Amino acid sequence: MVDKVPMTAGGYAALTEELRRRQQEDRPRIIQQIAEARAHGDLSENAEYHAAKEAQSLNEGRIAELEDKLSRAEVIDVSKLKGSTIKFGATVTIVDEDTEEEKAYQIVGETEADVKSGRVSITSPIARALIGKTVGDTVEVTTPGGGKSYEILKVAFG
Questions:
Q1: Number of structural domains, the chain?
Q2: Which of these, 85, 131, 142, 82, lies nearest to 108 by C-alpha position?
Q3: Domain check: are 93 and 152 in the same one?
Q4: CATH number at residue 56
Q5: Domain check: are 60 and 98 in the same one?
Q6: Which of these, 35, 105, 106, 128, could form a disulfide with 91 (CB 3.0-4.6 Å)?
Q7: Max CA-CA distance within the chain?
Q8: Which residue, among 15, 12, 7, has the nearest Cα to 106 in the 3D structure?
Q9: What is the DSSP string of 94-158?
Q10: Which HAMAP family does the UniProt entry name for this protein (predicted)?
Q11: Which of 40, 58, 76 lies at the terminal end of a domain, its last residue?
């Protein structure tokens, strides 16, 4: 069974662009670096050659990873979602019941998560606690720093 990888259209576009860049720009540049280093002679003590081969290995590994994720991508058009129940793609405004600090998070796919930008992975503890809840609900989230309690203030899509 192939596991689908949920992501927004923006996340899919970002992965597609990274794959294009790695295949069409990085790969030829690295091949050129290997050829130049090889021309320097003895490969056993050629640091430039070994560094270029290492870069090639890392780049090819990332290309394979991107191709896999894109082949299993399930692109979800967040603009078409609506409702009051929290699900993938929702932007949720919560308030910390201890500090009264408000935060807004969009629930996105693992590849798009960036907490500093307010995007949390669907598999994160906070997203798992929020899924299926509605405005007014209180959720308990176990964090590395201990348990936190949040009240859901707002749910939006798009």
A1: 2
A2: 131
A3: yes
A4: 1.10.287.180
A5: no
A6: 106
A7: 70
A8: 7
A9: EEETTT--EEEEEEE-GGG-BGGGTEEETTSHHHHHHTT--TT-EEEEEETTEEEEEEEEEEE--
A10: GreA_GreB (MF_00105)
A11: 76
Q: Are residues 55 and 87 in the same domain?
A: no
Q: What does the alpha-carbon distance between residue 136 and residue 24 come to, in Å, rounded to a whole number?
A: 50
Residues 68 and 96 in one domain: no
Q: Which of 76, 100, 120 is the last residue of a domain?
A: 76
158: nearest Cα among 120, 95, 111, 106: 106
pLDDT in tens, 74-112: 998 887 888 889 999 999 999 998 899 999 999 999 888
The vertex-101 CA angle with 126 and 132, nearest 5°, equals 30
Condensed to tens digits (0 to 9), the pLDDT of residues 39-81 reads 887 777 888 999 999 999 999 999 999 999 999 999 988 878 8
Q: Which of 110, 140, 111 is nearest to 126 (CA)?
A: 140
The Cβ-side half-sphere exposure at 84, using a 13 Å CA radius, reads: 6
Please list, residue by residue across 47-84, b when 16 or more beta carbons sit within 10 angstroms of its beta carbon and e when fewer do.
eebeebbeebeebeeebeebeebbeebebbebeeeeee
